[in-house]
Design goal:
Blueprint (H helix, E strand, L loop, with lengths): L7 H15 L5 H22 L8 H37 L11 H4 L11 H12 L19 H15 L1 E3 H4 L6 H16 L3 E4 L8 E4 L8 H7 L1
Helix pairs in contact: 1-2, 2-3, 6-8
Length: about 230
């Protein structure tokens, strides 16, 4: 709202008419508050109409603070008015309500069904014990997980024997007797175990070409511990 468009004389005339209508019940506090609001509005309106040579004038900052304070007071006043109207509506509605201060008539008392409890004292005791009984910790069902029938240790031993006997073999020869994909995977893991033990050396002339495995036997050790990791 533009303050320069506010007619202060109109607001003042309306307030004077309100005070005169109140008669002897007019309030000095209302008059004082109106004078403060009117003076603030008049000062702000004069500041808007006069030129402003300095943007950072301390007086302008005070006017801005006064404007914010006035706006906050107007919002609070509006909130009080709305709450007062709500209380008035609740009060007027409550005056039209009358609680029932008598019991039901005899003809209606017989309509109430009889309360029947289908549990005896023993059943209630069992129910209470079930409520307070500690619940078992949650577990994860692993019955759907099947153990692999392929042993990495056994296939590693087969590869070791083949390489010791032949000296050099490619990966196709090492997996020639495999009938399942898991067996091929187990032999590949076995080769990794032997390579980590420095027992074999790999040779692949071209990418994705034939993989040749050569038995070196240097630094070979028991692979029982390492093979269990892949199990």
């Amino acid at each position: 709202m533009d303050l320069t468009q506010v007619a202060l004389h109109t607001v003042t005339d309306e307030f004077i008419a309100l005070i005169r209508g109140a008669g002897s019940d007019w309030s000095l506090d209302q008059v004082t508050e109106f004078l403060v609001v009117a003076a603030t509005l008049l000062e702000m309106k004069a500041a808007r109409l006069l030129p402003d040579p300095e943007a950072d004038n301390p007086e302008d900052l005070e006017l801005l603070e006064a404007r914010d304070l006035l706006f906050a007071r107007l919002l609070a006043y509006r909130a009080y008015q709305q709450v007062a109207m709500l209380f008035a509506e609740l009060e007027s509605g409550a005056l039209r309500r009358y609680p029932r201060a008598v019991t039901l008539e005899e003809r209606y008392l017989g309509l109430l069904p009889e309360v029947r409890i289908g549990m005896d004292a023993t059943a209630f005791a069992e129910l209470a014990a079930a409520v307070f009984r500690p619940k078992p910790p949650p577990t994860v069902n692993i019955d759907h997980i099947h153990a692999s029938p392929v042993s990495v240790a056994e296939h590693t031993a087969v590869i070791r024997a083949m390489l010791v006997d032949r000296g050099v073999a490619d990966f196709r020869e090492l997996t020639a007797g495999c009938t399942q994909v898991l067996e091929v995977v187990a032999r590949f893991l076995g080769l990794l175990n032997l390579y980590r033990e420095s027992a074999v050396a790999f040779q692949q002339p071209e990418p994705l070409g034939e993989l040749t495995v050569r038995w070196t036997g240097a630094g070979a050790r028991s692979s029982a511990g390492t093979e269990e990791e892949y199990e």
